[in-house]
Amino acid sequence: MPPPFSPQLSRAAPAPPVYPPLLPPPGVIPPATSRNNPFRHALHQAHLRDPYSRLVARGLDGEEGEGELFPYLSAFPVGPTPLGPKQCAFAWEFTLSPTDCQRFPQFLGTPVGQRSSRVVRDGNQIYRLRCIRVSPPTTAISPSAWSVADAVWPSLAYVFVNGAELSFRRKLHHGKDLPLEITRHLRPGTNTVTLHLIRNAAESKDQFYAAAVEVLDITSFTRAIQLATLLPAGQCRERIRQRLHPATRDDDDVSIVSEELTVSLVDPFTARIFDRPVRGQRCAHHECFDHDTWIRTRAAKSDRQALKDDWKCPICGRDARPQNLVIDGFLCEVRNILAATNRLEGARAIQVKSDGSWTLKEEADRPAPQHGGAGPEVARGPPKRKSISVDDRPASLTQRPKIEQARSHTQTQTMGYVRCSPTEVISLD
Ligand SMILES: [Zn+2]
């Protein structure tokens, strides 16, 4: 039923919408919010946007197509340099060969009114200038420490690359300070980067910085996997023994001595046991994560966003770049034994003794036998030998979820030098 006619309502004109002004009044300092919106707050820096990157990868059939690539910090034309408390002017030089410059991404130009674009391929290299904050007594910074530090620009700085002045993108407008890509300003021969600082009171007292020119290598999944190195099982056992029985102990400290070390077998990304266990060389923990999964989660795709190179260990936050990963030979052995004895399902952790023997902790509360070549439990028991092949596995293992079958297929194609495959024939002493 239609409402009754109201002459007063029909004469009232609708109020025009009120829009906030596009630009703030002069002199207004925008508040530093925790959720910056670069599309609004960095509108005046649209010309500093990263180029659109079209990532081209070569498939297994050799054909090129749009795909995933993996950027990681690989080298320093100018190594990490503490800037100290007083010096205001810095100039660094480094030389690039024509071959180095041929590894730049292929820039496609900048149409009028559009952002620039480029094609990035396996083997390309991208050069960046970055500053980080360091503690005042810092005199040297390791590549690993540098790789996990966030970019932080000094409050007021001017940078020139081969005479061209470049601008920073800061946290105020972009949510966080962003590295400054300088690839397009480099050339064969000698390249010069200058940095001039004007420090505020805090930066003259205890807020110090370091700067470096770094290279991002762009690599395929296969090459990224091959960069890891194997840590033999014997060295892994020795590492556990030292953890349980440290050689030196400060008597002034209260020490907790344990006979067993619990090591989780669960990959933090997939919540199941890893296929090939890796961790960073500098990681102090013994837990590992799955190699393929870790690399896959770092993939860069064709996007309008900057290429990300976050390789912080998912367990401790230290350097876990592809070239700094170690494959734990001991946990590879553990996984192979679990696979051969049909105990992969539900395997969550093991308890390792200082002699290298270990006991499985399963989800289900059921007893598990012990393994370990040098362990006293094994030595006391009767000698036994068992050979298990893939055909001996029960249907429950051969019918594993699709995700694992697909991952195993990839592993077989990409890995030739380390195998943790459950299809191996293993003899148990
Ligand atoms: Zn770690």
Topology (SSEs and partners):
Layout: H1 7-11, H2 38-41, E1 52-58, E2 64-66, E3 70-82, E4 89-96, H3 98-102, E5 106-107, E6 117-121, E7 125-134, H4 143-147, E8 157-161, E9 164-166, H5 171-174, E10 180-181, E11 189-197, H6 201-205, E12 208-219, H7 221-226, E13 229-231, H8 233-244, E14 260-264, E15 277-280, E16 289-290, H9 291-297, E17 325-328, H10 329-340, E18 347-353, E19 358-362, E20 370-371, H11 376-380, E21 386-388, H12 395-398, H13 402-414, E22 426-428
Parallel strand pairs: 1-6, 13-17
Antiparallel strand pairs: 1-2, 3-12, 4-11, 5-6, 7-10, 7-12, 8-9, 8-11, 14-18, 15-16, 15-17, 18-19, 19-20, 21-22
Helix pairs in contact: 8-10
Protein name: SP-RING-type domain-containing protein
Region (Disordered): 358-415
Domain SP-RING-type: 265-317
Q: Can you characterise this structure?
A:
One of its GO terms (biological process) is protein sumoylation. It comes from Aspergillus campestris (strain IBT 28561). Residues 265-317 form the SP-RING-type domain. Residues 358-415 are annotated as: Disordered. The structure is a single chain. By secondary structure, the protein is α+β, with helices and mostly antiparallel strands. 20% of the residues lie in helices and 27% in strands. The chain has 13 helices and 22 strands. The chain has helices at residues 7-11, 38-41, 98-102, 143-147, 171-174, 201-205, 221-226, 233-244, 291-297, 329-340, 376-380, 395-398, 402-414; strands spanning 52-58, 64-66, 70-82, 89-96, 106-107, 117-121, 125-134, 157-161, 164-166, 180-181, 189-197, 208-219, 229-231, 260-264, 277-280, 289-290, 325-328, 347-353, 358-362, 370-371, 386-388, 426-428. The strands form 6 sheets. A 4-stranded mixed beta sheet has the order 2-1-6-5, with no helix packed on it. It has a 4-stranded antiparallel beta sheet with strand order 3-12-7-10. A hairpin with a 5-residue loop joins strand 1 (52-58) and strand 2 (64-66). The structure holds zinc ion.
